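Support case: FO1 complex. Customer-provided input:
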Amino acid sequence: MIQSERIRPLNGKPARDGKFVLYWMQQAQRSEWNHALEYAADRANERDLPLVVFFCLTDDFPDANLRHYAFMLEGLSVTAERLKKRGIRFVLRKGRPVTAVAEAAEQAALVVTDRGYLRVQRDWREKAAGRLNCGLIEVETDVVVPVETAMDHEAYSAAVLRPKIHARLGAFLRPVRKRRLKKNSIGIQMRFEDPSRPDALLKAVRIDRSAQPVSWLTPGEQAAEKTLKIFLSRKLEGFGTSRNDPSLDFTSDLSPYLHFGQISPLAVAMAVRETGSPSAEPFLEELIVRRELSMNFVRFNSRYDAFENLPSWARETLRLHAGDRRPFRYTREALESAETHDPYWNAAQTEMMCRGKMHGYMRMYWGKKILEWTPDPEEAYRLLIRFNNRYFLDGRDPNGYAGAAWIFGKHDRPWGERPVFGKVRYMNDKGLERKFDMRGYVRKVKERCGA
Ligand code: FO1
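Agent response - structure generated as follows:
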């Protein structure tokens, strides 16, 4: 059984006679550990109907470009292959999601979808709910504890959310059983594009092509599982003590896969917990408490991508210090091309530009310096969101929005007052040098990015 807290009917309409059950795959782009897919399989089996999986490829996903579409489409080709092995037809169509799902559902008895938290994802689902003539049911599968089950309002900080999550973990850390489909759907006739040719699809979409795809990380659920295995066998042990050192490699590299739903956070959490490693706890704090704090944030704060989402103390202190003299000031162009006086910042920026990722600790430092070196905090906020969304594989994600907000004081507390930052937490290069081998980090980025 899929836990009832994960399930929400979106339009109150009943199922009707139809040729298949349709799963509109959107957030959870995977064939395993997917509550929405298995829920749809149950509904199909109880009606003796086949199950069809549908994905809408839209060319105007906000702030997305070639780098992200390449990762997503290659991943989807793997998912299509795996679904086929289960006798499930995967239909991909270009278009606008609401219209496309309504068309794909013309002969469906029922439509099931997964849950996404961003404005655009909520909007698609709300409009589709009104448009469809059959039931639309949402199943939440990209968090361990369903968002409203943990809390029904915005959490002020991780300290507030943590005990609520921990209290429910036992109930939700449960594997997702893979169902056997009674009826095979491979032969169903439907108009579709070929998901096994991501290159052709990439050429066909009209998107911003300015950020290049990355080659160091293979997309798709299979690669995600391999990345998890490598993390468990070689990195988890050192995660507890060395994850913050940017010259070392103890982070999981899972965030791009999590962003596109190519791996389930539940599967990762259970695998990590099973190791019994002392590092499991700090890792699960990031994967569950911190990540789900970001879902809580975008779910309950409608201004999650703007300066106005900050707590009043942070907005006030930053505005009060907006006129302070900046030790350095850089234009967007100078920042974008990594031309500052700070070799560590330049290395972090280079890492993001060339790999679509940045070491987690450097991501905090990098953001703090954008705040420090931009003439105005509100402009700095916009710039940070822009860089985040454009260059990171895992940008355009609740985690990215919460990370940007944290730089400006969200989910944090006031610290001692100082120029520019006011009471917002400060970070500096001396701190980095004291704690880590920063030359090693710069060298590593040079080796990887050739800059
Ligand atoms: N979801 C879709 O349903 N269709 C798309 O064409 C699509 C493109 C896309 C591009 C970049 C990106 O970061 C996300 C994209 N998504 C798309 C959504 C994505 O898979 C996730 O659901 C959310 O971004 C989660 O934050």
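The mean pLDDT is 97.

Case will auto-close in a few days if no follow-up is received.
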